[in-house]
Amino acid sequence: MSTTKWVLDPTHSEIGFKVKHMMFTNVSGKFDTFEATVETDGDDFTTSKIEFTADTASINTGNADRDNHLRSADFFDAAEFPKTTFKAGGFVKKSGDDYTLTGELTLHGVTRTVTLDAEFGGLLQDPWGNTKAAFSINGKVNRKDWGLNWNAALETGGLLVSEDVRFAIELQFVKQ
Q1: Per the database record, which ranges form the Lipid/polyisoprenoid-binding YceI-like domain (predicted)?
Q2: pLDDT in tens, 73-129
Q3: How many domains are contained in the chain?
Q4: CATH code at 165?
Q5: Bridge partners (DSSP) listed for residue 170
Q6: For residue 37, which of 67, 68, 60, 7 has the smallest C-alpha distance?
Q7: Which end of the chain is more exposed for a tag (fewer CB within 10 A), N or C?
């Protein structure tokens, strides 16, 4: 079977995350600059090789002061670690359109294996004749596992920023 290359459609993709703030509300953010490629045998994503890169300096929570703090050495240290990467083998089918995706996430100079839940949206031909594939990917990691340890104690107890980071990722790929 021939190898198929899929390139990310960044205008229809988003790398989002949520983190609890003061232990009761979520702060949402995303990376504005990222890229991903996938290679499959034919159209079989269970055989895929996936490579993803995000520019850590492109973090965007909608608040300049918070974003600058996240880029600092307290968190991502974007000057020292300008890229976040994820490399994975194929999706593993659970049932229906539900899959898992396990790969190596490198963040802040640390590489760890993570497993994420993925929903395959299917293949579709757009109005211009391009074949597209869509995925919704969700999961949770503990930011301290990658050395992102900064926090502040609250006077009422608890911490300012949760250790858990939840991903909400929407990806659309174009068959080459």
Answers
A1: 5-174
A2: 888 899 999 999 999 998 999 999 999 999 999 999 999 999 999 999 999 999 999
A3: 1
A4: 2.40.128.110
A5: 14, 136
A6: 7
A7: N
